[in-house]
Amino acid sequence: MRTVLETSAGGLVVRGLAQAAAVEPEPDLSRLEVALIGRLDRRGRMLWSMPKGHIEPGETIEETARREALEETGADSTVLGPLGIIDYWFVAEGRRIHKTVHHHLMRYDHGELCDEDPEITEVAWVAFDDLPRRLAYPDERRLVEKARTLLPEIARDELAGRNPAPAAAQQVDPSRRADGPAPVRRTGQGSSAGLKNGAAKPGIRHHDDAPEESTS
Asked: 99 pairs with which residues across the strands?
C-alpha cells in the first residue's frame, strides 16, 4: 500500500480577548468564544472541530491557517502564534496517509460566520469553556488545554495593545462557493508572533472517521 504525506494548517480562532482581560485579577476565559466547524460523518453524527485545510503552493503555514479559517468559517483573523501539531494515520482510497496538521492561535478581527462551504454542515461561535465537551477529537481537546495556559497572557497583551495589529484583510470570491472551497485573494501578508511556551508535541490519532477529516 502506497504511503502519502499530507500537511494542513488551521487553528483556534478566538474572539473576546480584550473583554476577558478586563476582569481582575486574572483574565476571565469564560468570556472567550471560538469559531468551530461541524461536519456530518458517515453515521450522521455532527463532529465539531477547528478549521483547517491543505497548504497551497507558495503559502506559508500561517497564511494557510488564516485562509482556511476564512474559507471555512467566514472569520478573518490574525495569527498570534503556534499552538501545536497533531499527526495521525488513516487509510483512504487504497492509500496509507500520514497527515500533519499545524494549529495556531488566531485572533478574530472581522467577518460574519458563513457555512456556504459545501464540505461543512454548520459553523458556530462556541464558548471557550464548552470546547472540551463540543470538540469531537481528543487531540484537539488537548490543544485547548494548552491554549488555556497561554490565553491569559495573550488576553492581557491584547488589552494593552501589545499583540500584532490586524493583518491585511482577506476577501473570499463567492463565485466558486457552489463548486468547492472558495479561493482567497490575499491583499497582504499575515502577521504572527511566537508564543512563549512553544508548540505542543505531535500526537498520533486513529479513529474511524479520519477519511472525513482528511478533506481539510
From this structure: 6, 88
Nearest to 91 by CA among 216, 214, 7: 214
Phi-psi category of residue 137: left, alpha or beta, with phi > 0 → left and psi -120 to 50 → alpha: beta
CA 127, CA 129: separation in Å to the nearest integer? Answer: 5
Per-residue pLDDT of 96-142, as tens digits, reads 999 999 999 999 999 999 877 888 999 999 999 999 999 999 999 99
So what's the pLDDT on residue 119?
Answer: 85
What size, in residues, is the chain?
216
What are the helix (H) ranges across 74-215?
Answer: 131-134, 138-160, 210-213
The mean pLDDT of the chain is 83
Predicted confidence at residue 149, as pLDDT, reads 98
Please state the pTM of the whole predicted model: 0.80
**How many CB atoms sit inside 10 A of residue 160's CB?**
10
Cell of 112: 460574519
Domain 2-176 has CATH 3.90.79.10: yes
- The SS3 assignment for 44 reads coil
Question: Is residue 89 within 8 Å of residue 208, measured between CB atoms?
Answer: no
CB crowding 66-83: b at 16 or more within 10 Å, else e = bbbbbbbbbbbbbbbbbb
